[in-house]
Amino acid sequence: MDNGLLDTILHPHHDKPAWTNWAKNQSCHPTEIFNPETLEELTKIVFMAKADGKKIRCAASGHSWSSSSVTDGYLVVVNKMEKVHTPIWDNDLKSWTVRIETGVLVKDLDDKLRQNDPPLTLPSNVVLDSVRYGGVLSLGCHGAATKTRTLPDLVSEVTIIDANGDLNTFSEAKNPEEFAAATVNLGLLGVIYTYTLRVEPMFNLKVMWEHVPGIVPYLRQQANERFDRFEAIRKKYDPNGMFMNATFAGILGH
Ligand SMILES: Cc1cc2nc3c(=O)[nH]c(=O)nc-3n(C[C@H](O)[C@H](O)[C@H](O)COP(=O)(O)OP(=O)(O)OC[C@H]3O[C@@H](n4cnc5c(N)ncnc54)[C@H](O)[C@@H]3O)c2cc1C
């Protein structure tokens, strides 16, 4: 890549960077806001943060109401990491899969999957198509169907750059425990680079309204179990808290 362009991305010129989420209930003034386009740029940002003693938070479309992107350190906006690889049939998983970069829009993946032969889709998805997979999967978003699980349950592999700048690959086959935490990482394990998602041939949908008894306690129990497993793994990949902020430190009991 052109060194001048890389320099502009890594050293953006601004007076006072500011970030606000979509709902405008969260805002912050990071030291720097980065808009990387490649793995090389992402990795350099992590090295710079390490050298400067800065913490990193990430943001995608900014539709979360939570403070998960709020920082006075480095903010990495992943919206230019938008590559969608060609879907493949995975013989081990007995499923179609598609590998995507973290900043891919829900709408864009939908459009690309439709163009495949056969046309493909996710079995369930969030209602908004202007959000991005990094945001949707990191925070464990639910879909809009009762017979499917959360969207992170569709992930078969995730790659994350950790606090040392190393790219780690998490998959169920490699280490189910770490993989479970990596899929719903709350942005605390590092910067997500790619996800591989299980997708399926398009199907007809029937919409029904029905009360599902006991769904809230069930979801709460699922969340608590994931949370405990996650914290143990976070400490391994981010021992010095480069990806933590005050809010998450509070939530995780630090
Ligand atoms: C009108 C509206 C409707 C919604 N409908 C639904 C719905 O139907 N179902 C549902 O479950 N949710 C729904 N949501 C919630 C929304 O889907 C989530 O807040 C989702 O996280 C937003 O995605 P985003 O791209 O805006 O992510 P952002 O809000 O930009 O990011 C969320 C977090 O993801 C993490 N993150 C993102 N990218 C990376 C990365 N590369 N590396 C590390 N961490 C990363 C960061 O911690 C970041 O703070 C809705 C929200 C709105 C405003």
Describe the structure.
This is FAD-binding PCMH-type domain-containing protein. Residues 26-202 form the FAD-binding PCMH-type domain. Belongs to the oxygen-dependent FAD-linked oxidoreductase family. The protein is of the alpha+beta class. It has 2 domains: 3-77, Uridine Diphospho-n-acetylenolpyruvylglucosamine Reductase, domain 2, CATH 3.30.43.10; 88-242, Uridine Diphospho-n-acetylenolpyruvylglucosamine Reductase, domain 3. It has helices at residues 3-10, 39-52, 106-114, 133-138, 176-183, 215-237, 246-251; strands at residues 19-20, 27-28, 32-34, 56-59, 74-77, 88-90, 95-101, 120-121, 155-161, 167-171, 191-201. Strands 6, 7, 8, 9, 10 and 11 form a 6-stranded antiparallel β-sheet that branches. A 3-stranded parallel β-sheet has the order 3-5-4, covered by helices on one side. Strand 9 and strand 10 form a beta hairpin. The longest helix has 23 residues, at 215-237. 36% of the residues are buried. The site of flavin-adenine dinucleotide has 28 residues, from strand 4, helix 4 and strand 11. Flavin-adenine dinucleotide is lined by residues 22, 58-64, 68-69, 78, 102, 126-128, 131-132, 134-136, 138-139, 141-142, 186-187, 191-192.
Number of domains: 2
Distance between the termini: 40 Å
Radius of gyration: 18 Å
Query: So what's the CATH class of the largest domain?
Result: Alpha Beta
The molecules bound to the chains, other than polymers, are: flavin-adenine dinucleotide
Instruction: Determine the fraction of residues in helical runs and give it as a percent range.
Output: 25-40%
**Total helix count?**
7
CATH architecture of the largest domain: 2-Layer Sandwich
Coarse shape: globular
Instruction: Give me the strand/helix succession.
Output: HEEEHEEEEHEHEEHEHH
The main sheet comes to: 6 strands, antiparallel
User: What is the SS-derived class?
Assistant: alpha+beta
Low-confidence stretches: none
**Rounded mean pLDDT score:** 89
Strand content: 15-25%
CATH topology of the largest domain: Uridine Diphospho-n-acetylenolpyruvylglucosamine Reductase, domain 3
Number of strands: 11
